[in-house]
Amino acid sequence: MLDETHSTAAAPLPDFARRRTFAIISHPDAGKTTLTEKLLLASGAIRMAGHVKARGERRRTRSDWMEIEQQRGISVTSSVMTFERDGIVFNLLDTPGHSDFSEDTYRTLSAVDAAVMVIDAAKGIESQTRKLFEVCRLRDIPIFTFVNKVDRESLDPIALMDEVSSTLALDLTPLTWPIGMGVDFRGLIDIANRKALLATERGGPLVREVPFETPEDLIDLEGVEERIINEAVESLTLALGVLPPFDLASFREGHLSPVYFGSALKEAGVAELLFGLGSVGPSPLPRSAAGERMVEPAEDLVSGFVFKVQANMDPNHRDRVAFVRLCSGRFKRGMKLFNPREKRNMAIANPIFFFAQERETVDEAVAGDIIGIPNHGMLRVGDTLSEGESIRFEGLPDFAPEILRRVLLSDPMKAKQLQKALQDMAEEGVVQVIRPVSDPAPIVGVVGTLQLDVLSARLEKEYGVPIRYEAVSFVTARWIVGERAEVDRFMEANRSSTARDRDEAPVYLARSQWVLDRAIEEWPKLKFVAVKERG
Ligand code: G4P
Prior knowledge:
Layout: E1 19-26, H1 32-42, H2 51-62, H3 67-72, E2 80-85, E3 88-93, H4 102-110, E4 114-120, H5 127-138, E5 143-148, H6 157-168, E6 171-174, E7 176-179, E8 187-190, E9 195-198, E10 208-211, H7 226-242, H8 248-252, E11 256-261, H9 270-279, E12 287-289, E13 293-295, E14 303-311, E15 320-328, E16 330-332, E17 336-339, E18 344-347, E19 364-366, E20 370-374, E21 384-386, E22 397-399, E23 403-409, H10 415-428, E24 432-436, E25 443-446, H11 450-463, E26 467-471, E27 476-481, H12 484-493, E28 498-500, E29 506-510, H13 513-522, E30 527-529, E31 531-533
Parallel strand pairs: 1-3, 1-4, 4-5, 5-11, 6-11
Antiparallel strand pairs: 2-3, 7-8, 8-9, 9-10, 12-13, 14-15, 14-21, 15-20, 16-19, 17-18, 22-31, 23-25, 23-26, 24-25, 24-28, 27-29, 27-30, 28-29
This protein binds guanosine-5',3'-tetraphosphate.
């Protein structure tokens, strides 16, 4: 079933068609880090598991503000890992795991073509998984499901599939199935490739392969207790009887998810997932440029967009790296790219590529690849880069912040530094900065409160600007959209509750939902919008 679409190194595919750019979404603790390590291991990118965390440690020591991450044990940064297997190049974008970072996560997910949803087999769908899944659904991203930790006491596989399917309104097709779970875990049935995968010793790696025609052939499987294999075959037969068969079109449209049972810790099911990602996972798709045209990955000219900016990775240098997802063309080191927002070209002299393994210097990248561009503030999240064409990719909106705070300086002499620091943080997407019309103290807006801690810690450490927050009497912000004269009239009439964002766009700060509803009613020619496209 899967073999039909499997692309190997031997097939003369264009380079972009060999790219699989994806993210792993999960609730904290479901096993994302472990699965990432094991995917890298299965691809041969690292020789020893534990590297991902070790790299994280090193990064932390380089960057002080990540103390917050250490204290809270969560990942606040996204990183990119590129690895290769069987001629397929995988770009794995790490999404921040904490619910507070929904905006950052949203932007990272806008840069991928597929996602792997990791579920803890004992817990089923948890809150964060669900939220992230909904974000993927907005874009109809195809989703692979990895049911992790089957080596622990788990829910029954059929009950689990049922819960996932009904909670998410998603069709599921199992591609691997557990032979026993918890202490009974003996191996997996690789349904797609018709073989059982077993350990030669209890708890060991699944190196023994037993081919089969139909699952019933596995009854009496040597080396597995009768009760365990019988139960596995019975539940698999039942599942296959009621669940839809794998359908590539339905999967690519985001309606059906192939399910892999496994244990990241024991490396069970990981190679099968990687094979699935390579064989049925989508290669880079065309992208809509501001509704004007579709940009095809096969086009000759380079285009891409910035989905993340990370500043001050090294506190000794005011460096800033923009992460760019390429959408078309063949990028080469030293190329000049046009930024339509700034209306100017920039030479990309020192792009960063993200290969997880050591290999000869890469100096080309194609659609689906991510490149890091060090710069001094020229690039913002949402910026498009192209070889001359004035296009803008959609899908990187700002969300109206629900948490607003006035920023007060502990040292009034540092007003200039604060302004610069806030501008940097806004460009990086850490916070939104809103300047009230009638008050010099800026207001910062965030989607989750953790961002406030990150902001104050970074302002102090990286810019030497200690700040305090003060509560404001506004509960939400909305962008005001309408004809200029009408907007001006509204701003004039509501001076104490209007502001401008960093692009000078007018913003209404509402004191309550009721007040917002009344403004909507009283100003029918205006729109008060909660989502603003960037650029
Ligand atoms: P996260 O990134 O999604 O937050 O999860 P992470 O991989 O860090 O895994 C969370 C915990 O679950 C870790 O245990 C990890 O070892 C364990 N784990 C992950 N996958 C499996 C699996 O397939 N089977 C079992 N039994 N455990 C698994 P920990 O004790 O919190 O951390 P550690 O000290 O082991 O690193």
